[in-house]
Amino acid sequence: MKNIVILFLFMAFSVVMSAQVKKISILGDSYSTYAGVNPEGYAPFYPNDKNDVKEVEQTWWSLYMKAMGYELDKNDSWGGTTICNTGYGRMDVTATSFNARADRLGNPDIIFLFGGTNDAWANSPIGEYQYSDWTTEDCKAFRPALACLLDKLQNLYPNAQLYAILNSELKEEINESTREICKYYKIQLIELVDIEKQNGHPSIKGMQAICDQLIEAIKK
């Protein structure tokens, strides 16, 4: 009888501890990819011959989860994708933009939105600040698309803590727009600095720096 009671208590303790483990989801671009982790058909950057990140454990999000004791729910990251519906060469990328994938994040406790890099590199239209009544056409520009995305994420995942991550070395138009829109939605923006990159993407050292900066920023 005593052994049964002990077993029951152990099982109950295990259930409670499991329930306390936070789950994170990521909506991102190539910086958050790794082959075999992202949905089938997505374009991963990592691993890559021109970058020293060769193991999934070396990615910023894997390092962060290990440091915090968290688990991955969904990693919906697609290389080359933009937040807005205008991609490289002014192509219409409505089907693959961040807004198109916002409802694929599962049931997370924490969401990391890590985008804007390709909007900057592709010279996507900036547009005007707009905080309601977005159309697909409106979202071909960065500012209305980001506002629409943040609004959508807050409504889709009301119980999740949302953080936005801003890459280093982007043009100021993207930086300032992201600051302004995150401020409007009261979302903490983590602006990365001094991220070492190889072939335009975080190296092992850069990935560790991202992890460290997230830990430091979220503590505050």
Structure, explained:
With 220 residues, this protein is an alpha/beta fold. Helix content is 35%, strand content 15%. It contains six helices and seven strands. The chain has helices at residues 2-20, 60-68, 117-121, 142-156, 172-184, 204-219, and strands spanning 23-28, 71-77, 110-114, 161-166, 188-191, 197-198, 201-202. Strand 1 (23-28), helix 2 and strand 2 form a beta-alpha-beta unit. Helix 2 (60-68) packs across helix 6 (204-219) and helix 4 (142-156) runs parallel beside helix 5 (172-184).
Quick recap of the structure?
Mean pLDDT is 93; it is low at 12-18.
Per-chain topology:
Elements lengths: L1 H19 L2 E6 L31 H9 L2 E7 L32 E5 L2 H5 L20 H15 L4 E6 L5 H13 L3 E4 L5 E2 L2 E2 L1 H16 L1
**Number of helical stretches of at least 4 residues:** 6
Model regions low in confidence, pLDDT < 50 over at least 5 residues: 12-18
Oligomer: single chain
Q: Give the percentage of residues in beta strands.
A: 5-15%
Mean pLDDT: 93
Strand order, sheet with most strands: 2-1-3-4-5
Structural category is: alpha/beta
Helix content: 25-40%
Q: What would you report as the Rg, rounded to the nearest angstrom?
A: 19 Å
Overall geometric form: globular
Order of helices and strands: HEHEEHHEHEEEH
The count of strands amounts to 7
Distance N terminus to C terminus? Answer: 49 Å
- How would a textbook summarize the main sheet? 5 strands, parallel
